[in-house]
């Protein structure tokens, strides 16, 4: 399987994303699931997942948090300094291993956290933090095999490099609706024709291109 970036960058990527979640939750006081959602829909996550050097090795976890905050228009003045902790936190472990799994399986962070939501991922800390990251990747790979792949809406949106928030603004469709369509919590085939037509207009495709059909198992390339 072809991976997004060279293995030499992986340890730095794991450390940076571990620091990111640790700082966001334990220093800034953010809700972990909300941070994970923002990260997944961000341009930052796309750059990180592709292994762009500035994202995976050029910034520490706190700097990644600042970058994410600025992307969504949040004030970054007066942020607290990262705390000093004697041991790695569960949130650090989550980010650390999520970076490895994303690289190992070659999926997007959006796909990863859709298959294993943040709270469920965090609950794996005991006892999985004592296992190798390869075993965790195998566990997630099995989960990915059991769920459907991305919706057509998600694929068309990402093909144009649009975030969910950008698509919502341009199409005049609520962000929550787009999230629910892409998570299959709402059936886009039963959506109002006008809403789907606006989505199709922004995505430069036909309405039929966004309607769902049965899909096979997600090909994640396997995991030894």
TrEMBL record:
PROSITE patterns: HTH_CROC1. It holds the Pfam family HTH_3. Residues 153-210 form the HTH cro/C1-type domain. Keywords: DNA-binding. Transmembrane segments: none annotated. One of its GO terms (molecular function) is DNA binding. This is DNA-binding helix-turn-helix protein. It comes from Collinsella stercoris DSM 13279. The lineage of its organism: Bacteria, Bacillati, Actinomycetota, Coriobacteriia, Coriobacteriales.
